[in-house]
Amino acid sequence: MTQAETATDAIVYVTNAGDGTIGSYRLDRQAQTLTPLATTAAADNVMPLAVSPDRRYLYAAIRSEPLRVLSYRIEADGALTPLGSGALEGSMAYIATDRSGRYLLAASYGGNLVSISPIGEDGVAGDATQTRESGSRAHAILATPDNRHVFATHLGDDCLGQYRLEDGALVPNDPATVATEPGTGPRHFVFSPCGRFVYVLGEFSATVTTYALDADRGTLTQIGVCDALPEGSNLAPGMPRESIPDGDDTPRIWAADLHITPDGRYLYLSERTSSTLSTLRADPESGALQFVGNQPTVKQPRGFEVDPLGQYLIAAGELSDHLSCYRIDSASGVLTHLQDVPAGTKANWIEIVPLG
Fold it and tell me: Got the DSSP string for 60-76?
C-alpha cells in the first residue's frame, strides 16, 4: 500500500470571523475529498488558531471585546469541546504554542505587543502573565525548534524581534532584532523542517527572505531574498492599509500566509490582491529558494495550510464562499485543484489535525 492509502484521515478546522464560528471538515486521503462536518460556536472576529504539540487541544484568539483566547479539547472524532478561556491584552493577529505545549505565544498587530500565557495540565490557556511592547505592528510569533528562543515579526519596522524563552517569559536577545530589506513588511514565517533556516514572507513585497538560524545564540543571519510573484506583475509595492490615502485604488501587493511542505522542498504563499498562490522550490541543504509558479485561488486568500503529510493544501478566502482543496505533487510541488467546499463568512485561518 502507498502512504496515502495507509495514512489516517485528518480534520480541517477553519475560523469564520464574520460568523463567529469554527468550521470542521474531514479530509479523506484515499477519496481525496473534503467533507463538511460541524460548526462550533466561538465569538465574533474569531481568527488565529493554534494546535497543541500533542494535537489534543485547539486554541482560538478572539479579536472582539472581551479580547481572549478560547481553549477546546479535540475529541477522537475531531469534535471540539469548549474548556475555558483566558484574557489577552491585545487583539492578536497570531497565536502559537511553544514546543512543550506549556505556553501560548501571541502577537498583536494593533497593540504593538507580544504576550505569553500559561497552559494548564487540563489544556486551558489562562490569562496572559506577560505582555510586553514589541516593535511596530507585531504580526507572527514562534518558538525555535529547541524551544530556547522565540522570534516575532515587526511588520512596521521591517525587522524580527529575537527573544530568549526563560521560565515562561520573553527576554530580549542580543541583538534584540534582525532586519529585513526596507519596505518588506515581514508578516508570517516558518522554520525549515531541518531547523537550520527561517523563511519570512514580506506582506508589502511578496518576497521570501531566507535566514540562517544560529540555534545556540538564537539569532538570524540573512542569506537570500526570493521574489514570489511572476515577472510582469502589475502590483505596486504594498503599504499598511491604514496608510493608503482615500481614493487611492492602486492595486498593491498584499501577501498573507506562508507554509512549507514537511520535506522542506516547497514553500507556498498567498497574495490577496491578485487572489493567487505562489510556489517556491527550496534547497533543503542551502536554504536557497527558486520561484516555480503562480496560480489563481479563492478570493482574498488570507489563510491556507499544508497538511502534515505534505499531500494536500487547503485555502480559505475572506471574500470567498468556499474553501479550495489542492493535491500537492511531491516531485514538482505543482498544485492540482481537487474540490471546492462551502465556507463561512470571512474564512481566514486553517489548521489540519490527523485523526487517531
Answer: EEE-SSSPEEEEEEE-T
